[in-house]
């Protein structure tokens, strides 16, 4: 994400650079700590701080309709986070612990606690909202459209973290694998819907937003298939479906990162004819990003 600042400097010639870089860095660092968390409450706090940071980045540095976009982003995010919080609170009440691991490399198993299915579904639906799957996706293209490029890429990484939390819940509720077909079907719909909706877009950020919905559907599909086939409590061996989801997330981070860096340097969005003549560097970077996304 830091490299996007260089390619998108035209957005920030007249703004408080210290405030922007501080919010941006805070969001990036808290995303890292979200992944490193060993406790569900700790994970929730770091994820919430990252969401609030992105909210202010959109509100302060977005485009014409940034107020509406930032409020939409925050409202949908808080619905998802509220459901995750409810799940964590019930887990804490039922078994007096919210630790993700019971020993090094071994996940806790919460499948046998009371109300396991509602607890599981609360968190999964909350993170399905945060990862913009079909039916709860409308906030993502609008947010991408009104955000400057460096904010879009950190937002895309934040959206993908929702799938990370889903995978964690698949592991700590691994006995509920009979629910996996629900998420497999949901993922397939998201993949197809996101892909189809890229075609009519004439705004590059919105185009990439719908493309991200499709890719996030692929991530949900891979992890849901692994969940359906059975996940072990140990992380010593990672199933192919989980690995596929990880690689897709890396692809989003690298490929979409390059594409968003390119859009940060394109002055007239929507007028892409003859772009190579006016911006050969950005065209080359865009081509590399597209190749990465295509696989």
Q: What key phrases describe this protein's structure?
A:
295 residues, two-stranded antiparallel sheet, 2 strands, globular
What topology does this entry show?
Layout: H1 2-7, H2 17-36, H3 40-61, H4 66-95, E1 101-103, E2 106-107, H5 116-130, H6 139-145, H7 149-172, H8 180-196, H9 204-229, H10 240-265, H11 275-278, H12 280-294
Antiparallel strand pairs: 1-2
How would you describe this structure to a colleague?
With 295 residues, the protein is an all-alpha fold. It has helices at residues 2-7, 17-36, 40-61, 66-95, 116-130, 139-145, 149-172, 180-196, 204-229, 240-265, 275-278, 280-294, and strands spanning 101-103, 106-107. It has a two-stranded antiparallel ribbon. A hairpin with a 2-residue loop joins strand 1 and strand 2 (106-107). Helix 10 (240-265) packs antiparallel against helix 12 (280-294). The radius of gyration is 19 Å and the shape is globular. 45% of the residues are buried.
């Amino acid at each position: 994400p830091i490299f996007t600042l260089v390619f998108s400097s035209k957005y920030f010639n007249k703004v408080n650079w210290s405030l922007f870089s501080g919010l941006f860095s805070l969001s990036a660092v808290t995303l890292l700590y979200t992944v490193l968390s060993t406790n569900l409450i700790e994970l929730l706090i770091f994820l919430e701080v990252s969401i609030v940071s992105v909210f202010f980045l959109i509100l302060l540095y977005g485009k014409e309709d940034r107020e509406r976009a930032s409020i939409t982003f925050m409202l949908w995010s808080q619905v998802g986070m509220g459901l995750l919080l409810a799940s964590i609170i019930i887990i804490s009440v039922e078994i007096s612990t919210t630790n993700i691991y019971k020993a090094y490399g071994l996940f806790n198993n919460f499948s046998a606690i009371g109300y396991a299915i509602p607890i599981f579904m609360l968190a999964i639906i909350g993170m399905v909202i945060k990862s913009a799957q079909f039916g709860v996706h409308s906030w993502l293209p609008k947010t991408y459209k009104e955000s400057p490029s460096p904010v879009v890429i950190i937002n895309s990484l934040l959206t993908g973290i929702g799938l990370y939390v889903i995978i964690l819940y698949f592991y700590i509720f691994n006995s509920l694998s009979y629910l996996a077909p629900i998420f497999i079907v949901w993922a397939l719909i998201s993949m197809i819907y996101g892909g189809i909706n890229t075609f009519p877009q004439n705004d590059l950020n919105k185009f990439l937003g719908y493309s991200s919905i499709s890719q996030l559907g692929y991530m949900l599909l891979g992890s849901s298939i692994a969940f359906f086939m059975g996940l072990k409590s140990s992380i010593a061996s990672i199933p192919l479906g989980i690995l596929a989801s990880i690689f897709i997330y890396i692809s989003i981070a690298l490929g979409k990162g390059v594409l968003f860096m390119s859009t940060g340097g394109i002055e007239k969005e929507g007028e892409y004819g003859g772009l190579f003549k006016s911006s050969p560097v950005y065209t080359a970077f865009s081509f590399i990003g597209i190749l990465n996304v295509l696989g």
